[in-house]
Design goal:
about 375 residues; Endonuclease, Chain A; 15-stranded mixed beta sheet; alpha+beta; about 35% helix
Length: about 375
């Protein structure tokens, strides 16, 4: 089969360029992700940059904070950017303790009485950059539920992240620095490093990675355009995993058209959600999607919080953006795209593994769901653009 995705088209749509020569480690088990984050922070020698939507002062957040304080005491420059809305419950004393330890802190999109309605716009990105060499990004936040800290939780929420090493690291550092300056931070000198230095030889060390970050209306238009390009150009398969699915009519139409072209479209969604209203709003679209031939499965067990897409097992997107109105039209989001068949196989393998822990929704069974469920769906879909 001739591949339908190429660098030039993707670069033209996203107005960005692929960065070749990177090592990419896929992290789909929560403990592996947090172990990778802790190990990366411990390895830092010069500068640590963190950007998270939620950073709580619970056991997980406190452990990360203590490690950051240790690194700052050892002379490592630490810069932490948190979203004001997402981290609203974290007390000022927590941030002051970090600042007292020498850590620079900024809050993105703080509340302003002059424009209170803008407070719903959030910086939803997740990013950790170590010495301009190593980068973590994905869907998780710094909080207990993502890590599965409490004894009553066998596992943390099911999320996906990736650890990147190579030339993509300075590119993402520049994105972080631009955001840092937007919210009142000063210049952050990047260490004089060779990003690929120390990466052991491997077939996975030459992957092309493209940043898909959006922090403006223009950026979100490009992100949406790239998403629909991916839907429309897939020839064999579309694998979508998302925590919040409240599709527009355009998205439903496009997924229907993909099935009509013979594409195997599979959608993996949470069986339980931390935002039940959003879950019901998304389920209002199930009847039409199932009739069209879209296969829908719901993850059983812990909360599914991952945000990934794989097209034809070749073009993959991992990051923070959900398939909902807020991610695609309101929030600041951060994703990376990887154009590689080997990595695509890994992504599809994770998807198939998730399906073993999921229940597929059958059209005939869905039609017979209780009336109260249908009423909730019709009610909450009215607020699709607010969830």
């Amino acid at each position: 089969m001739t591949l339908a995705f190429d660098r030039r088209s993707i670069e033209s749509i996203s107005d960005n360029t692929f960065v070749p020569g990177n090592s990419v480690t896929l992290l789909h088990k929560t403990r592996d992700s947090f172990n990778a984050i802790f190990d990366a922070i411990r390895e830092a020698r010069d500068v640590i940059c963190l950007q998270f939507y939620i950073f709580r002062n619970d056991e997980t957040g406190t452990e990360v904070a203590d490690l950051l304080k240790e690194k700052a005491k050892a002379g490592v420059r630490v810069y932490l950017l948190y979203d004001h809305f997402g981290s609203f419950g974290t007390p000022a004393s927590f941030w002051k303790g970090l600042e007292k330890a020498g850590i620079s802190i900024r809050a993105s999109r703080p509340f302003k009485w002059s424009s209170p309605f803008h407070y719903v716009q959030r910086d939803h990105r997740k990013l950790l950059i170590i010495d301009g060499r190593k980068v973590f990004t994905g869907g998780l936040n710094i909080a207990n539920e993502y890590r599965g800290f409490h004894l009553r939780m066998k596992e943390g929420w099911r999320d996906t992240g990736i650890m990147l090493r190579g030339p993509i690291a300075p590119a993402l550092f520049r994105i972080f620095m631009a955001t840092w300056k937007t919210w009142g931070g000063g210049n952050i000198p990047l260490p004089d490093v060779v990003p690929s230095q120390g990466v052991p030889p491997s077939p996975d060390n030459n992957l092309p990675v493209i940043p898909i970050f959006a922090s403006s209306a223009k950026g979100r238009r490009k992100m949406r355009k790239l998403l629909y390009y991916s839907f429309r150009n897939a020839r064999a398969s579309i694998r979508l995993t998302t925590a919040y699915f409240t599709p527009s009519r355009r998205m439903i139409d496009t997924l229907e058209e993909s099935v009509q072209r013979g594409v195997d479209v599979r959608l993996l969604l949470p069986g339980i959600s931390d935002v039940p209203a959003a879950r019901y709003a998304g389920r209002a679209s199930f009847s039409r999607l199932l009739r069209a031939g879209v296969k829908i499965s719901t993850y059983q067990g812990e909360v599914l919080h991952a945000k990934t897409s794989v097209f034809d097992g070749y073009w993959s997107i991992v990051g923070s953006a959900n398939l909902d109105f807020l991610s695609l039209r309101r929030n600041d989001e951060g994703n990376v795209g990887i154009l590689d068949e080997g990595f695509g196989r890994k992504m599809n393998a994770v998807f198939e593994d998730d399906l073993t822990r999921s229940t597929e929704i059958r059209e005939e069974d869905w039609a017979g769901r209780p009336l109260r469920e249908k009423i909730k769906e019709r009610f909450f879909v009215l607020f699709r653009r607010r969830l």
